[in-house]
Amino acid sequence: MRGAYVYMMSNKSHRLYVGACIDLPKRVEQHKLKLYPNGFTAKREKEIKGWLRKRKVVLIQAKNSNWLDLSLTWTDLLQVD
Q1: Nearest-CA neighbor of 21 among 3, 48, 46?
Q2: Which DSSP letter does residue 20 get?
Q3: How much is the mean pLDDT over the chain?
Q4: pTM of the predicted structure, to 2 decimals
């Protein structure tokens, strides 16, 4: 059984969205196509959603300081630290 992913996405204006899923490439495609805008949120997702924006930005900038679209490089994105 595959594990689940908790992810953060942003748009060009740096608006943040936190989500959780099992199939990350499929979920990113759904976001880009604007499907399921009111989807279910998991406990881990809710925890991160509750963080202040500043804390989320610190986490993003620690791993992705240039706010690059990481879905373009799946092999790097799906590696576990």
Answers
A1: 3
A2: E
A3: 78
A4: 0.53
How far is 57 from 22, CA to CA, in rounded Å? 24
Q: Exposure string (b/e) for 5-44, b if CB count within 10 Å is 16 or more?
A: bebbbeeeeeeeebbbbeebeebbebbeeeeeeeeeeeee
49-63 pLDDT, tens digit per residue, is 889 999 989 988 998
Residue 24 · residue 62 · CB < 8 Å: no
Q: Token pair of 51, please?
A: 């963080």
CA distances from 49 to 14, 76, 79 (A): 15, 24, 23
User: Average pLDDT in the 12-34 region?
Assistant: 84
Q: What is the pLDDT of residue 2?
A: 63
On the CB side of 62, how many CA atoms lie within 13 Å of its CA?
6
**E strand or H helix at 43, and its extent?**
helix 43-49
